[in-house]
Design brief:
Radius of gyration: 18 Å
Number of strands: 10
Mean pLDDT: 94
Largest sheet: 6 strands, antiparallel
Low-confidence stretches: none
Strand order of the largest sheet: 1-8-5-10-3-2
Bound molecules: fe (ii) ion
Strand content: 25-35%
CATH architecture: Sandwich
Shape: globular
Number of helices: 4
CATH superfamily: q2cbj1_9rhob like domain
Amino acid sequence: MGLLLFYPTPVFEKEDSMPEDFNQKLEKWIIDYSQTNEEAINWSKKFYGKGVTSYGSDQKLHEKESIFGELAKGLTPHVKEFLDSIKAVPPKEISCIDMWCTINKPASIHPRHIHPLSACSGTYYVNADPEMGNLNIHDPYDNRAMGAMFQPDSPLAYDTYSVNVKSRKVIMFPGWVSHSVQQNLSNKDRIGVSFNFRVFYDNENK
Ligand SMILES: [Fe+2]
């Protein structure tokens, strides 16, 4: 009886998700990396427009660098909380499978995409504020285009919702959620670490 609302798009945000001193250490590491790592610099020049990313050159920072291992470990309880909140069956293991850092310079923009096969993807923001570009979450029903008939506070009113970014905040969602990043309209660099987590169950499909 009454309203049945199917196919929600879950997005989880958590502020102060890592300690301030850790965040400062991480920011310094990423800036040094962006100035010295030739592989990331060259890959970014070719594919990444206005910015530097280890995506494409090194997506396994959590395995190779202890500071990213520490980040993956620190984020895992938040991933668990997110999965609990969407009533996922508690997995035997939650494991970070990809982690890479990004620096998005002024005027940069990141187009719409998904993260295939990831139970929980997202970004931990090292240095970010809304002027540097918020995260857009896109309507999976691209062809709906009927937002005009809904009141502004209806969850059906818009085909794109944005989530405010902030330093030390983590935003996460299942990998199927279509997202993009707004243009960096500030004169500062937006710095973040993106990730994919997978879940494992106690069966032969592990
Ligand atoms: Fe993404």
